[in-house]
């Protein structure tokens, strides 16, 4: 299929060294509509991202000539923020070359919408393409594969050259470029990198480039790689010069002063020519390994974010039947508790495969005996406190209000300890498979401050983070102590936290802002907290394709 790929770009995007997380998106389509009468469609993909309610074009792929099942060589790179819902739209058009892509309705082959979080969590998303007004574009589908290329991620730097390649041109020398393919478990080939074209040269030296470990070999050193050398043709009909197979394990022999080289073979020539030796030699001049784990390493390795919400049902909130109450259910306007819950929960749900969330209450008298409880399930099922999705939490909250009596005091240590016990069980697995986020929504300063500080210090050794949102107009000054931003939080006995795991925010600061602003503020620290915990424990992320073999990694964290 490579021969029909259209023009080769001057080099694929390289992994930047910035701290900002970036994600590579690779796109392919199947069964596209055929808009051309004489030839097949010439597809091109546009990537758009929603910004302040408007769809803005981020980038576009190359045009692939006459192909209804294109695999695009273009790699889309998007900035990745865990704490935001980043909406993407992919639009496929039939390009005619002479006109701007996307200017005519007739050229539209279909579109698909999703979020960056969904692609990162699932790693591979296949969805149908839709025309306007929700109509299916026949059997057309689009597949998007994500891989991280952040500067925090492990990556490898490679430098190739070739010697004495076959000359495919009649009046000049070949214009060679090199492609590297990863061979996946299903024997399909994933284009990892395409070098720039070196014009009129049978012994080219290609520019060094960087690729992530995931992209190159799925974290498996013995995974087979196919490397192909082509003679570039401007009409897209590139001439095959030769190929060779290798592994990352073999490539590593090129570290230091050593070089590794392979015969570039043309299987047809090998069969036909008795004295055929090769069609040239490809040399790996240098290989450098950089290995640092990041938040996306853990998420793409299958680490699930388990979300628990704890709601303050103390009497200071006011009678829920009174419109002045912080728990008043207004059919036209969600209260502050619901706004905060939905804003944070909608981000977390993309990273939890079963979409079930634990929902707890504290500070109320609960049926049947109406005794005060500081860690009850708001669905009143003591054996299973989980609700189906954020909507399930909202419904349980609304249905539980008439059944309880708001009381007190504001004790949060029991709920922190409850989630910590579950996190401690997870820690014993010695795998980076589950991380816990506890969202506490409260209208006042906690009463059991000493016990809460002790519980937070204990929790700082476990895979969990705590977000506290202060609801209402109380004086939350004392709550800032729990947020270690102004100094190290200590237990009553003077023991410091291992990690800063608490983020406190008064909701009133975001009352007139969008829900995304609140979520962005309270979740911004979570990726760093996840990495700090697993780095301290020296737990490597499980590789995406090798979750059953956690030891198949490329080394220990730096």
From TrEMBL:
<dbReference type="InterPro" id="IPR045052">
    <property type="entry name" value="Copine"/>
</dbReference>
<dbReference type="InterPro" id="IPR000008">
    <property type="entry name" value="C2_dom"/>
</dbReference>
<dbReference type="InterPro" id="IPR010734">
    <property type="entry name" value="Copine_C"/>
</dbReference>
<feature type="domain" description="VWFA">
    <location>
        <begin position="306"/>
        <end position="505"/>
    </location>
</feature>
<dbReference type="InterPro" id="IPR035892">
    <property type="entry name" value="C2_domain_sf"/>
</dbReference>
<dbReference type="GO" id="GO:0071277">
    <property type="term" value="P:cellular response to calcium ion"/>
</dbReference>
<dbReference type="GO" id="GO:0005886">
    <property type="term" value="C:plasma membrane"/>
</dbReference>
<dbReference type="Pfam" id="PF07002">
    <property type="entry name" value="Copine"/>
</dbReference>
<dbReference type="InterPro" id="IPR002035">
    <property type="entry name" value="VWF_A"/>
</dbReference>
<comment type="similarity">
    <text>Belongs to the copine family.</text>
</comment>
<feature type="domain" description="C2">
    <location>
        <begin position="136"/>
        <end position="263"/>
    </location>
</feature>
<protein>
    <submittedName>
        <fullName>CPNE7 protein</fullName>
    </submittedName>
</protein>
<dbReference type="GO" id="GO:0005544">
    <property type="term" value="F:calcium-dependent phospholipid binding"/>
</dbReference>
<feature type="domain" description="C2">
    <location>
        <begin position="9"/>
        <end position="129"/>
    </location>
</feature>
<dbReference type="InterPro" id="IPR037768">
    <property type="entry name" value="C2B_Copine"/>
</dbReference>
<keyword id="KW-0677">Repeat</keyword>
<dbReference type="Pfam" id="PF00168">
    <property type="entry name" value="C2"/>
</dbReference>
<dbReference type="InterPro" id="IPR036465">
    <property type="entry name" value="vWFA_dom_sf"/>
</dbReference>
